[in-house]
Specification:
elongated; 96 residues; three-stranded antiparallel β-sheet
């Protein structure tokens, strides 16, 4: 038995966007005046949204005010989403 051939229509190729790096925050998490990064921390932090610990090695968001970088805060992803909703800045991701 011979393997099946995968014949594609040469005109049907659609180039895809390059994936965002893992360190890039999701688009919904961005906020003007802040640098938002997606990180997997090496130590524990306290989330200002829920006042619980963001455990070491857990991917979360670091929110850095552009005019006061020393005031950066480490947020659970869902806590940051809730904060954006609270202040009216949440933009849901586009449907796929």
């Amino acid at each position: 038995m011979m393997p099946r051939k995968n014949r594609r229509n040469p005109g049907s190729f659609q180039p895809q966007e390059a994936p965002r790096p893992r360190s890039a925050a999701p688009e919904w998490a961005e906020l003007p005046g802040y640098d938002v990064r997606h990180v997997g921390g090496e130590k524990e932090y306290r989330c200002p949204g829920c006042d619980h610990i963001v455990r070491a090695g857990i991917w979360h968001l670091v929110v850095i005010p552009l005019d006061a970088p020393e005031e950066r805060r480490h947020w659970h992803t869902e806590c940051w989403r809730k904060e954006l909703r609270r202040i009216g800045a949440y933009r849901p991701p586009p449907p796929q």
